[in-house]
Amino acid sequence: MRRNLVVGNWKMHGDIKSNQILLESIIEGLRDFKNADYVVCVPNPYLFQARSLLTNTNIAWGGQNVNQHEQGAFTGAVAPHMLTDLGCTYVLLGHSERRNLFYETNLTAAARFDGAIKGGLTPILCVGETLAEHEAGLTEVIVASQMDAVMATLGEQEFAKAMQLNMVFAYEPVWAIGTGKTASPEQAQLVHQFIRNRIARRNADAAAKVRIIYGGSVKAKNAAELFAMPDVDGGLIGGASLRADEFVAICQVANNVTSSACLTE
Ligand code: PGA
Questions:
Q1: Does the beta carbon of 181 sit less than 6 angstroms from any atom of ligand 1?
Q2: Per residue in 129-181, pLDDT tens?
Q3: Ligand 1, atom 3: closest residue by C-alpha
Q4: Ligand 1, atom 9: closest residue by C-alpha
Q5: In the annotation, is 95 catalytic?
Q6: Which domains does the chain have, with CATH numbers?
Q7: DSSP string of 80-135?
Q8: 156 CA to middle of ligand 1, Å?
Q9: Has 172 been annotated as catalytic?
Q10: In the chain, which end has fewer C-beta atoms inside a 10 angstrom radius, N or C?
Q11: pLDDT digits (tens, 9 = 90+) for 180-213
């Protein structure tokens, strides 16, 4: 049975004071939710604060990216063990903003994915097509190439480790991120199903277990219809994760909605 997962991606927002208010409100709001998993991915300087406030709550925390190397002369980079040292269990990888604004590629995503699982972090691999690719009917081609670049580098052992760490896929159509345009639940379902089928080509058990979350303008008002889709196992939330009431409401939907796939195993 797959539990829903809601991940807040704070991006480059926040300061010590506002983070404290936000985290305290989220802790309070999520206190009684037991049926899903909740994560906030905060900017690296605030991981210590996240650890202080979130330890012994039902909310996990993670990084927004990680370098593949264990250590070394890599100015500005953060190693996997540095995130785990600060109690992180998750890390976002291959987010479209990293790809588009910071020149990351399928190759770097693959290397970082490998580094993350070696370091014991649960990777959340973001995939998704741009508006031009969407309009050209290339969604599946792009998503497949982004997935394959990572999956092909994983040997059997690494794949097993990634599964043991409960690797997550996030489908985020780039045209839906921060734009207020959301993929329709049916559009999201089709791509999520495509992702799951592609994993099944490698390992059917893994495909049934892996969580595929949707990101791109998820709000409290559209979360229920998205999360009700059989292959949508929760959401990756940007803007709405910075507002405690919105984030809590989205988490409540994840807590309440049990997609039909969740009932099958
Ligand atoms: P958004 O961002 O919810 O603000 O669209 C999602 C993301 O980039 O992960």
A1: no
A2: 999 999 999 999 999 999 999 999 999 999 999 999 999 999 999 999 989 88
A3: 238
A4: 238
A5: yes
A6: 4-239 (3.20.20.70)
A7: HHHHHHTT--EEEES-HHHHHHS---HHHHHHHHHHHHHTT-EEEEEE---HHHHH
A8: 32
A9: yes
A10: C
A11: 888 999 999 999 999 999 999 999 999 999 999 9
